[in-house]
Amino acid sequence: MSYTEKLLEELERSPELAQRFRKTVENILLNEVLLEQRALRSDFNRLLEEQKKLREDFNREIKLLREDFNKLSEEQKRLREDFVELRADFTKLSEEQKRLREDFNKMLQELTDLRRGYRRLETRIQSLHGAMLAGFGELSKFAGITFEEFSRKFLENYLKAQGVLPKNRYLTKYKIDSEEIDIFCDNPAIVGEVTAYAQSAEEVDKLLKKVELVRGMLTSEPRKYLIVLTAPKEVARSLERLSEENQIELVIGKIV
């Protein structure tokens, strides 16, 4: 017979022993329940503490997030203000640019008018020089000098008055390789051709040929002058066009 069977048989024979055994078992079970209850309460308290810590951490994070959000709001406000200010500055710059463009257009128009006025003045001066040249050319016949000599002296006085030719320098006649240059100065470099009547625009070629002859003895590109007492209308137009293309200063006394 096993120990358990013996215990049960003994309990059946002694009800008092069975009663004490039952109380003992109940006490043991009660102690076990109490121990389990304490363990559960301890776990519960630990969970409460953890929950408290979590709530504190959560509140702290919420506070930090709220502070960051407030900072972002302030930064956004400043950015919006800066954007408004930049837009105002851009508008001012656009208006200023518009005014500058208008001023530039006005200045450009004034410059164009001045250039036109200068051209008209230059044309008038050339016409005046031509008229003076024609008149004095006729008078030179009675003064006992040739038209070439008169033109050379006329141009010399004009260039000195303009400050181009120093007072101690003069325009002379120069001969090189059997070619005669009607107007010449090596410093400042000046080369000119004089003709009483221009039958064609070949007068320009004659002048350019003489420039090439003396170019080696000059230190700079010479001023080129072509003085014509009389020229037919069509020839005069060709002379004007070719002179402009070759940077030649042309003076025509009379166009017929």
Task: Write a short abstract of this structure.
With 256 residues, the chain is of the alpha/beta class. It has five helices and five strands; from the N terminus they run H-H-H-E-E-E-H-E-H-E.
Helix and strand arrangement:
Blueprint: H1 3-13, H2 15-143, H3 147-161, E1 172-176, E2 179-186, E3 189-197, H4 202-214, E4 223-231, H5 233-245, E5 248-255
Parallel strand pairs: 3-4, 4-5
Antiparallel strand pairs: 1-2, 2-3
Q: In words, what does this structure look like?
A:
Helices cover 71% and strands 15% of the residues. The chain has 256 residues and is of the alpha/beta class. It has a five-stranded mixed beta sheet, with helices on both faces. Helix 2 runs antiparallel to helix 3. The longest helix has 129 residues, at 15-143. It is rod-shaped and about 180 Å long. The N and C termini lie far apart (166 Å). The model has no long low-confidence stretch (mean pLDDT 78).
Q: Which residue ranges are poorly predicted, with pLDDT under 50 across at least 5 consecutive positions?
A: none
Query: Please, how many domains?
Result: 2
The overall pLDDT, averaged over residues, is: 78
What helical percentage do the residues reach? over 70%
Strand content: 15-25%
First-residue to last-residue Cα separation: 166 Å
The count of β-strands is: 5
Structural class: alpha/beta
